[in-house]
Amino acid sequence: MWGGGTFGEIRSLLKKKGYQPFYEEFFPMPSNYVASPKPENSAVFYQQAEKKARIVLTEILANQKKLFTNPLLHLLAVAVSRAANFGAAIDGRRIKINAACIQCKKCVNSCPSGNLKLIGNRIRPAGRCMWCMRCFAVCPEQAISLRPFSCIPPYRYHGSI
Questions:
Q1: Which residues 6+ apart lie within 8 Å of 102 measured at CB?
Q2: Which of 43, 46, 117, 125 is the most buried (most CB within 10 A)?
Q3: Tell me, what's the pLDDT at 142?
C-alpha cells in the first residue's frame, strides 16, 4: 500500500504485529499510469526484476540484513508514495468498464484493495485503487480503461500475465 520498501508506516505495522523487518529493496518498474508502456520496455523491466528477485531471495535466505537508513531517501520515498496513493484513490474512480464487460468478476476478485465491486449488473470503481493494474491484466474482454486526464487517451492493457 505504501511505497518505499518497508519504510516508515509498513515497517511500523510489521513491528506491531511482532515481525522484525531485516531486508528491503527497490524494484524499478515502468510507468503504467501516464502512458501505456511499450511491451518491449516492460519486458526489459520484468527481466531485470526477475534477476534482481533471485539475488534478493538468495540474500534473504542467507539471512543478510539490508534496511535503508538514509533519512533523505526515506522522506523522498514516503512523499512520493503518499502522493501516488492520493492520486490512485482519485483516479480509481476514473476506471471505466465498457459494454464489452461480461461480469465474470475476474477484475473484482483480483483487486487487492477492493476498488471494484459488482453493483447490480455492473462493475463499478469505489475510489480505493492502488494502481496495481491487475484488473486490466485479468479482464478477458479488455473492457477496462483508465482516462487519467482528458488530454490523454484512455489506458488499455495489451499483454498477458
A1: 140, 141, 143
A2: 125
A3: 87
Within the chain, residue ranges assigned H as helices are: 8-16, 39-61, 71-91, 106-110, 134-138
Q: Which domains does the chain have, with CATH numbers?
A: 8-89 (no CATH), 95-146 (3.30.70.20)
Give every residue of the chain whose pLDDT is below 70, as ranges.
1-9, 29-39, 41, 74, 78, 81-91, 147-161
- Residue 137 backbone dihedrals phi, psi, to 5 degrees: -70, -30
Provide the sign of the torsion angle of the four alpha carbons 32, 29, 49, 25, taken in this order. negative
- Listed residue (139, 137, 135, 143) closest to 100, CA to CA: 143
Q: Report the distance separating Cα 157 and Cα 32, nearest Å.
A: 9
What is the full DSSP assignment across 3-31? SSTTTHHHHHHHHHTT----B--------
Tell the burial category of 28 from Cβ atoms under 10 Å away from its Cβ (0-12, 13-18, 19+). Answer: exposed
Grid cell of 97 as nine digits: 468498464
